[in-house]
Design goal:
Layout: H1 9-21, E1 26-32, H2 52-64, E2 70-75, H3 79-96, E3 104-105, H4 117-127, H5 129-137, H6 149-165, E4 171-177, H7 179-188, H8 194-197, E5 205-211, E6 214-219, E7 222-226
Parallel strand pairs: 1-4, 2-3, 2-4
Antiparallel strand pairs: 1-5, 5-6, 6-7
Helix pairs in contact: 2-3, 4-5, 6-7
Length: 227
């Protein structure tokens, strides 16, 4: 039986809006893809697309993004993330009549931290999602199978702040990724234990931003943390 996740697009939009209203000029948003199909075949996982509901969610998010700063889209190389980014583009363009540049894919927005997929799947099935994540975060899974979780958070944080550094003044990076890319950022950068943070919903995420020459990370679940 496939899991169902809550839609958290409004929380993402509210976080973006609050930061813009506070005077923040540069934002880099990391969000989970929209509602998608599931499969029992691991080899098919990268190719699973969005459900019809998921397509609507992504379009609606795009139309809800403020006109300025203009989104600059990035995504994981997995199909559901590419599709989400494409539909965010279409929703934004329809609402604001402003064309966007093509989405740029990045392996750092994909599950790069999985080093041995076969062993990882075996452990995941044996332990279950919550225990596997806790064991990963507590360094109880060998780093030949999973990249060190704090290093994973550092890599993702560096990627997202790098986006900030290369934005023009009228741009906002919108990076579509997976829930497991967001988990370590909440645990190690925002200081929210995974068991407290809970699932990352569809179109849920965290926001990096620059203010007075310093870089911060925040989400609807936390106060901003300097990084």
């Amino acid at each position: 039986m496939e899991r169902k996740y809550e839609l958290k697009s409004q929380q993402t939009i509210d976080t973006i809006t609050e930061l813009l209203n506070s005077g923040v000029k540069k934002l880099s948003v990391l969000i989970r893809h929209s509602d998608r199909f599931f499969t029992e075949e691991a080899r098919m996982e990268p190719f699973m697309g969005l459900t019809e509901q998921g397509k609507t969610f992504a379009l609606d998010l795009g139309s809800s993004i403020p006109a300025k700063p203009r989104p600059k889209l990035f995504s994981s190389i997995f199909g559901r993330c590419i599709e989400t980014a494409y539909l965010i583009d279409k929703g934004y363009t329809k609402q604001h009549e402003v064309p966007l540049d093509h989405n740029i894919t990045s392996e750092l927005l994909a599950p790069f931290y999985i080093k041995d997929i076969e062993k990882a799947i075996h452990l995941f099935k044996a332990q279950g999602s919550e225990l596997y994540i806790r064991n990963w975060f507590d360094n109880l899974i060998d780093d030949s199978i999973m990249e060190n979780p704090e290093k994973t958070a550092d890599i993702l944080s560096e990627y997202m702040t790098d986006q900030l550094k290369h934005l023009n003044g009228n741009e906002m990076a919108v990076c579509v990724t997976h829930d497991w890319n967001i988990f370590p950022l909440k645990e190690f950068k925002l200081g929210i234990k995974h068991e407290t943070a809970g699932d990352v919903g569809y179109l849920d995420g965290v926001v990096f931003y620059e203010k007075e020459g310093q870089y911060f990370l925040t989400s609807y679940q936390s106060e901003p943390q300097q990084i």
